[in-house]
């Protein structure tokens, strides 16, 4: 590890002590202005098991930066105007995240702003020396939840392949597996997202510290992705096998998680042990530059800090100016359909949940032929975290009663215009099937795509014509063919206000 000798210490640029004060002040200002966002980040790190490792990222980054102190302290602190541009970009990214209610954008921007402040006040030359600690801070961003459905599908495929390879018959339907002794579901906890994210964070640190050539680093990171994916499938298969052959005495309770973490711990240990075999000796640090090397800045630090504060404070000011006022009385939210009446006595069929919705209704309609159809509407007005039109927290149906066996996008007539809707086939444990259409309505526009819905929603707010947004779910029991169920939904859409729920 590099050390600073007494002779070197005497040659350290004295302007670093003053610059450290300005850096600290700027970071405190950023933290104060965006305190709710940073507090929410810390809460995620502390409460979400997949991101507990984030609590170690700052100490790890600080350690790697401390290793470079001999090189850093011999350079002149400077100002990077490129970093100011990067700071402005992150402020705009945060603003977009708030408007579109995309937490990933907000979190990415919050971390990026801190990096930009540091980069601005240390200069490009110093930033090149400590590039890894700066970039490593991006592991503070709690992201990866979007991978969960894909990881669940992958885990189910691996488990089914291994079961069949070992002679155990299995019925595979979506995330549900049935073997002769019992049924299993590949739940979120079985996706392996916790293992994958943690391995990437630790693997990146390992690759940087143990390898010098970039190709070895890239090769190891590829293994750090592939190994958790394969290992998690084997781990899930092992849980099924243990439960199957122990008559479900083991691997079904707390030992399920203990086995999982022990198995994965061994796999990661083996990964790093193999990686250590190919470790490269660390090259000696380049000769320390002479004292005061680098291009000092002639800019006034007070002016630079004032500019930084102005840039980072601009986004919240713009956001407040764009907030639109809206009342649920601005339109009639009642749903009517010619030839259909609401049956207040029948039980709810879908039982979805829409946390934070301004208004929510699930109604069962019946026509003269005693055909039943369920229509769910969830209105979102002032969207915020936990109350979002497009969110994985919005459950279209009860997970206890229904499971999805198929999903696709189709063209539906009867809405504002022939529109794309998301069609989902549901099946209950008793074999009952339901066909569901779901879409979003923003003003007079309809869409089935989450990103398109967010764009239309934000555009309506910025244009000053915001009337809230609706998540609509239409469902019917499949008693004949799926096409007969679709025809019934088309008729209901033609007879009702589907696609026009927000018209004044």
Give the overall pLDDT as a whole number: 78
Shape: flat
For the terminal residues, how far apart are their CA atoms?
70 Å
Count of distinct strands: 11
Order of helices and strands: HHHHHHHHHHEEEHHHHEEEEEEEHEH
Proportion of beta-strand residues? 5-15%
Question: Key features?
Answer:
504 residues, disordered N terminus
Give the SSE map:
Layout: H1 6-10, H2 15-33, H3 35-47, H4 57-67, H5 69-72, H6 81-100, H7 103-122, H8 124-129, H9 131-136, H10 148-165, E1 171-173, E2 176-179, E3 182-185, H11 193-210, H12 214-245, H13 254-277, H14 301-322, E4 340-342, E5 359-367, E6 372-380, E7 402-412, E8 419-428, E9 433-442, E10 445-447, H15 450-462, E11 469-477, H16 482-495
Antiparallel strand pairs: 1-2, 2-3, 4-5, 5-6, 6-11, 7-8, 8-9, 9-10, 9-11
Helix pairs in contact: 2-7, 2-14, 6-7, 6-14, 10-12, 11-12, 11-13, 12-13
What can you tell me about this protein's structure?
This protein has 504 residues and is an alpha+beta fold. Helices cover 49% and strands 15% of the residues. Strands 4, 5, 6, 7, 8, 9, 10 and 11 form an 8-stranded antiparallel sheet that branches. Strands 1-2-3 form a 3-stranded antiparallel sheet, with no helix packed on it.
Task: Give the gist of this structure.
This protein is α+β, with helices and mostly antiparallel strands and 504 residues long.
């Amino acid at each position: 590890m590099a050390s600073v000798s007494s002779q070197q210490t005497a040659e350290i640029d004295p302007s670093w002590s003053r610059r450290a004060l300005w850096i600290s002040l700027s970071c405190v200002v950023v933290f104060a202005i965006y305190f709710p966002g940073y507090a929410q980040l810390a809460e995620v790190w502390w409460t979400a098991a997949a991101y507990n490792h984030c609590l170690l990222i700052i100490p790890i980054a600080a350690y790697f930066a401390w290793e470079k102190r001999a090189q850093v302290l011999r350079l002149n602190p400077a100002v990077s105007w490129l970093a100011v541009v990067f700071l402005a970009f992150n402020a705009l990214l945060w603003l977009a995240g708030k408007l579109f209610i995309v937490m990933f954008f907000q979190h990415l921007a919050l971390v990026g702003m801190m990096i930009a402040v540091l980069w601005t006040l240390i200069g490009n030359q110093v930033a090149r020396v400590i590039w890894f600690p700066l970039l490593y801070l991006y592991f503070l961003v709690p992201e990866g939840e979007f991978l969960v459905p894909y990881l669940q599908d992958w885990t189910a495929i691996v488990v089914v392949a291994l079961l069949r390879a070992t002679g155990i018959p299995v019925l595979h339907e979506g995330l549900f597996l049935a073997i002769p002794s019992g049924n299993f579901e590949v739940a979120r906890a079985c996706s392996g997202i916790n293992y994958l994210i943690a391995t990437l964070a630790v693997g990146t640190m390992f690759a940087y510290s143990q390898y010098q050539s970039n190709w070895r680093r890239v090769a190891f990171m590829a293994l750090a992705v592939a190994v958790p994916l394969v290992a998690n499938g084997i781990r899930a298969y092992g849980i099924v096998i243990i439960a199957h052959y122990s008559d479900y005495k083991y691997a079904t309770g707390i030992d399920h998680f203990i086995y999982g973490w022990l198995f994965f711990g061994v796999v990661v240990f083996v990964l790093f042990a193999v990686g250590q075999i190919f470790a490269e000796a660390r090259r000696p640090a380049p000769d320390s530059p002479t004292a005061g090397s680098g291009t000092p800045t002639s800019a006034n630090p007070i002016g630079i800090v004032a500019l930084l504060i102005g840039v980072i404070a601009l986004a919240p000011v713009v956001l407040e100016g764009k907030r639109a006022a809206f009342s649920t009385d601005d339109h009639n939210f009642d749903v009517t359909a010619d030839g259909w009446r609401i049956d207040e006595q029948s039980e709810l069929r879908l039982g979805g949940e829409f946390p934070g919705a301004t208004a929510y209704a699930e109604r069962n309609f019946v026509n003269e032929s005693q055909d039943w159809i369920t229509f769910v509407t969830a209105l979102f007005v002032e969207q915020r975290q936990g109350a979002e039109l497009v969110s994985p927290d919005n459950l279209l149906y009860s997970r206890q009663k229904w499971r999805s066996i198929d999903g696709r996008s189709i063209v539906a007539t009867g809405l504002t215009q022939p529109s794309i809707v998301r069609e989902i086939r549901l099946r209950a444990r008793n074999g009952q099937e339901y066909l569901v259409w779901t879409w979003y309505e923003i003003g007079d526009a309809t869409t089935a795509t989450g990103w398109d819905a967010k764009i239309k929603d934000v555009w309506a707010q910025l244009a000053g014509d915001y009337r809230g947004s609706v998540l609509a779910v239409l469902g019917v029991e499949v008693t004949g063919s799926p096409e007969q169920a679709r025809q019934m939904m088309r008729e209901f859409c033609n007879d009702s206000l589907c696609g026009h729920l927000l018209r004044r």
